[in-house]
Amino acid sequence: MYKLEEFKQLVKDFSDVADFLVIYIEEAHSTDGWSFENNIDIKKHKSLEDRLSAAQILLQKEPLCTVVVDEMNNAAAIKYGALPERLYVLQAGKVVYKGGRGPWDYNPMELRAFLEKIK
């Protein structure tokens, strides 16, 4: 959520050259686990229903793109090394951009520079 506004600006600026998708994965900082003081109150997902419910919080922030939810076996998070967050660009089924792992290396501005090159 920390850089959601930057992400939303990417969606606005580059929706003519890219389709955006958010995959909501396992909560990295659940309030019943390792969390920050200012965290949104999301507990560790024990079921798909828990994960779907938590994703509703993101949807309320209107990410401006489709949001899907990872399976409880965390298949997408594992495949893309996405915990806690990561940006990717795929073209014709191949990864052409892989951003750093969040939160410290999650960099929407770096993705912006990449998208500007392919625009």
Automatic annotation (TrEMBL):
InterPro entries: Iodothyronine_deiodinase. Belongs to the iodothyronine deiodinase family. The keyword Oxidoreductase applies. It comes from the Eukaryota. GO terms for molecular function: thyroxine 5'-deiodinase activity. It comes from Champsocephalus esox (pike icefish). It holds the Pfam family T4_deiodinase. Responsible for the deiodination of T4 (3,5,3',5'-tetraiodothyronine). One of its GO terms (biological process) is hormone biosynthetic process. This is Iodothyronine deiodinase. PANTHER family: IODOTHYRONINE DEIODINASE, TYPE I IODOTHYRONINE DEIODINASE. Keywords: Oxidoreductase, Selenocysteine, Thyroid hormones biosynthesis. It catalyses: 3,3',5'-triiodo-L-thyronine sulfate + iodide + A + H(+) = L-thyroxine sulfate + AH2; 3-iodo-L-thyronine + iodide + A + H(+) = 3,3'-diiodo-L-thyronine + AH2; 3'-iodothyronamine + iodide + A + H(+) = 3',5'-diiodothyronamine + AH2; 3,3'-diiodo-L-thyronine sulfate + iodide + A + H(+) = 3,3',5-triiodo-L-thyronine sulfate + AH2.
